[in-house]
Recover the amino acids of this structure.
């Protein structure tokens, strides 16, 4: 266990408030929770990549950042009128 | 067909020079990003990067030629970045204070919508770039984000969590809109 | 403990701290508009601090460059997503507030 893995574990606690917002909030509040969770997950992957010294995890973080952007935009567009 | 139109215009057509420069700019930038990501100068990686960058640059140029995206920012707009960075830090302090007031002292915190006069401009690339960058610049500062730009009313609808004076980007756009009014 | 190790720990504590405080902000603020504001610092300071820590540790190697790219992507993309989400809520609220023509 090193500082990076400890930081990643602590950061995962931040997913709990995001999950509460997603479950208990309105549908748009849930999207905000999802947006926040996406940011947390990218940062967690960066920490895990450094903690485990696994270079491919950095690529995962980059791809997740791109997909989070695209996915949240699609959800926001759908929520305007169709959901 | 966009690819055929690119090559059928001929070398003496000025618009094909512009497309070639655009393609070359994208190709160089993407190839450099590839080399940064693979962190090696092995021949196979260099060639793979050149080929991949060429494909992506061709797609980007084809999209541009169709007129789907018109985006021509001014270089001097980059001068706004330091002030924007300062504003981001200041606004983060404002948000932290608001959260402290709400959680520790139990004081309610409610955001509000602000209508800022905004010169929407035309459909050209310069105005489109200005609208996009104002949107990103205002939404980057934590205390405010753009909700909508009303082209008919020339209004920028902004949500702010903590009321206060407008940040420099919004103030400048308000002054520009007031100058543009008849 | 070397200076770089101290710098890494400070940056990690700062980055994780900002993220957790922003999560609390998203949880306790009322309404989606108010919650959205707290995604801003989370997307800017958290990833920047973690990327800086990785660069201190790894210098501008492949890992450092990718961490910087991921942080830059979040910084640039989050305002776009925030605007899109706020606009979606505004349109939904307007559709509910304004009666449809023909239903009167």
């Amino acid at each position: 266990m090193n500082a990076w893995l400890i930081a990643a574990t602590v950061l995962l606690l931040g997913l709990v408030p995001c999950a509460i917002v997603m479950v208990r909030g309105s549908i748009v509040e849930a999207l905000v929770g999802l947006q926040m969770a996406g940011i947390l997950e990218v940062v967690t992957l960066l920490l895990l990549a450094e903690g485990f010294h696994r270079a491919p995890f950095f690529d995962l973080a980059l791809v997740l950042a791109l997909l989070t952007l695209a996915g949240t935009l699609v959800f926001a567009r759908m929520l305007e009128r169709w959901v | 067909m966009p690819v055929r139109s690119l090559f059928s215009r001929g070398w003496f057509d000025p618009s094909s020079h512009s497309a070639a420069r655009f393609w070359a700019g994208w190709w160089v930038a993407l190839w450099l990003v590839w080399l940064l990501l693979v962190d090696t100068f092995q021949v196979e990686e260099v060639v793979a990067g050149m080929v991949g960058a060429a494909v992506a640059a061709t797609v980007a140029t084809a999209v541009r030629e169709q007129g789907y995206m018109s985006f021509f920012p001014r270089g001097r707009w980059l001068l706004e970045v330091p002030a924007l960075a300062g504003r981001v830090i200041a606004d983060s302090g404002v948000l932290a204070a608001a959260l402290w007031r709400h959680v520790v002292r139990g004081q309610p915190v409610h955001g509000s919508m602000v209508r800022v006069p905004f010169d929407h401009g035309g459909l050209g690339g310069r105005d489109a770039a200005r609208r996009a960058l104002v949107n990103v610049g205002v939404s980057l500062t934590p205390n405010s984000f753009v909700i909508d730009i009303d082209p008919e009313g020339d209004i920028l609808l902004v949500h702010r969590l903590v009321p206060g004076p407008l940040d420099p980007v919004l103030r400048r756009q308000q002054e520009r809109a007031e100058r543009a009014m008849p | 403990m070397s200076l770089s190790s101290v710098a890494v720990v400070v940056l990690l504590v700062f980055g994780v701290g900002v993220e957790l405080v922003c999560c609390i902000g998203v949880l306790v603020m009322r309404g989606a508009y108010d919650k959205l504001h707290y995604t801003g610092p989370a997307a800017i300071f958290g990833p920047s601090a973690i990327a800086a820590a990785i660069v201190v540790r790894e210098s501008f190697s492949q890992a450092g460059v990718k961490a910087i790219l991921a942080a830059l992507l979040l910084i640039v993309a989050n305002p776009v997503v925030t605007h899109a989400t706020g606009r979606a809520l505004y349109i939904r609220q307007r559709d509910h507030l304004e009666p449809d023509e023909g239903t009167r």
